[in-house]
C-alpha cells in the first residue's frame, strides 16, 4: 500500500498528446505460452516490423526483466505472480508514455492474467496466445531447460512440473508450432490495423 502522502502530479504532456505526436495509439501486446512456444521470437519480430513502420515500441522479456527489476524472483507460483504484477505496473507507465509495449512471459495462471488485465485495463491490452504443443516446445528446447526439467535438475518447470492454464478467450491465438513466423507477424499487424492502433 502506498503512503497517503504520495500525491499524483498531473502531467501537462498527456498520453493522447504523445499518441498524436507518435502517429499511433499506445497498446500492450501480452504474449503468453509455454517456454519455447515462440513468445520472444514473435514479440521481437513484431517490434521489428512496427519499428520499420515508424512506431515507438519496447519489448519486455526475461532478459531485461528477470535479471533486473525481477531479479529477486524465482519460479514458485507466488514469485511468478509477483513477476507479472510488476511487469503490468511497468506496462502501465509505458502506456502512458505512448509506446507500444510487447511483453513475452509465460504467464501460466489464468488468475494472474486476469489481474494483469485489471491493472492495465482490458482495453489497453491484446492477449496473444502462442499455442504450441508441449512436444514441439520440448523438441525445440531452445535453452536446453526441458531436458534439465525432465531429469529433475530444474524443479517447477512449466508444462513438466508446474501448470500452464490455457487461455480461454485470447484476443489472438496463433499456431506457433506450425504456422510460419511471418504469417504470425502479419496476423498481429492486421489486428493492430483493425483496432486503429496503427493507421498505415
Ligand atoms: N522453472 C521454470 N519454469 C519455467 N521457465 C523457467 C524455469 N526456470 C527457468 N526458466 C526460464 O525462464 C523463462 C520464463 O520466465 P517468465 O518470467 O516468462 O516466467 S513466468 O511468466 O513468471 O512464469 C523461460 O524462458 P522462455 O523460454 O522465454 O519462456 C525459461 O527459459
Ligand atoms: N511461428 C513462430 N513463432 C515464433 N517462433 C517460432 C515460430 N515458428 C518457429 N519458431 C521457433 O521457435 C522457437 C521459439 O523460441 P522462443 O521465441 O525463445 O520461445 P519463448 O520465448 O516462448 O520461450 C525459436 O527457435 C523460433 O525460431
UniProtKB/TrEMBL annotation:
Q: Which parts form a coiled-coil structure per UniProt? A: none
* Gene3D superfamilies for the chain: P-loop containing nucleotide triphosphate hydrolases
UniProt binding sites for ATP: 33-40
List the pathway annotation: Sulfur metabolism; hydrogen sulfide biosynthesis; sulfite from sulfate: step 2/3
Instruction: Name the reaction it catalyses.
Output: adenosine 5'-phosphosulfate + ATP = 3'-phosphoadenylyl sulfate + ADP + H(+)
Which Pfam family, just one, is annotated for this protein?
Answer: APS_kinase
User: Looking at the record's lineage, which domain of life comes first?
Assistant: Bacteria
Keyword annotations of the record: ATP-binding, Kinase, Nucleotide-binding, Phosphoprotein, Transferase
The record places the active site at: 107
Q: Which InterPro entries match?
A: APS, APS_kinase_dom, P-loop_NTPase, Sulf_AdTrans/APS_kinase
Function summary: Catalyzes the synthesis of activated sulfate.
Enzyme group, top EC level?
Answer: transferase
The UniProt entry's sequence similarity note says: Belongs to the APS kinase family.
Q: What is its EC number?
A: 2.7.1.25
Say if the entry is tagged with keyword GTP-binding: no
> GO CC annotations?
cytoplasm
Q: What is this protein called?
A: Adenylyl-sulfate kinase
Q: Which GO terms describe its biological process?
A: hydrogen sulfide biosynthetic process; sulfate assimilation via adenylyl sulfate reduction; sulfate assimilation, phosphoadenylyl sulfate reduction by phosphoadenylyl-sulfate reductase (thioredoxin)
Q: Tell me a Gene Ontology molecular-function term this record carries.
A: ATP binding
Q: Which gene encodes it?
A: cysC
Q: Where is the APS kinase domain?
A: 26-175
Amino acid at each position: 500500500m502506498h503512503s497517503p502522502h504520495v500525491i499524483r502530479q498531473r502531467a501537462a504532456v498527456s498520453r493522447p498528446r504523445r499518441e498524436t505526436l507518435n502517429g499511433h495509439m499506445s497498446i500492450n501486446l501480452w504474449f503468453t505460452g509455454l517456454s519455447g512456444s515462440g513468445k520472444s521470437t514473435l514479440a521481437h519480430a513484431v517490434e521489428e516490423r512496427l519499428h520499420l513502420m515508424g512506431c515507438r515500441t519496447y519489448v519486455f522479456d526475461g532478459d531485461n526483466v528477470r535479471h533486473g527489476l525481477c531479479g529477486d524472483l524465482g519460479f514458485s507460483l507466488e514469485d511468478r505472480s509477483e513477476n507479472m504484477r510488476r511487469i503490468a505496473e511497468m506496462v502501465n507507465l509505458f502506456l502512458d508514455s505512448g509506446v507500444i509495449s510487447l511483453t513475452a512471459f509465460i504467464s501460466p495462471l489464468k488468475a494472474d492474467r486476469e489481474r494483469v488485465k485489471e491493472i492495465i485495463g482490458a482495453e489497453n491490452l491484446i492477449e496473444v496466445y502462442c499455442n504450441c504443443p508441449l512436444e514441439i516446445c520440448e523438441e525445440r528446447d531452445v535453452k536446453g531447460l526441458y531436458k534439465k526439467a525432465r531429469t529433475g535438475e530444474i524443479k517447477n518447470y512449466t508444462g513438466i512440473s508446474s501448470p500452464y492454464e490455457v487461455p480461454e478467450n485470447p484476443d489472438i491465438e496463433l499456431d506457433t508450432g506450425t504456422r510460419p513466423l511471418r504469417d504470425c507477424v502479419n496476423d498481429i499487424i492486421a489486428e493492430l490495423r483493425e483496432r486503429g492502433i496503427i493507421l498505415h
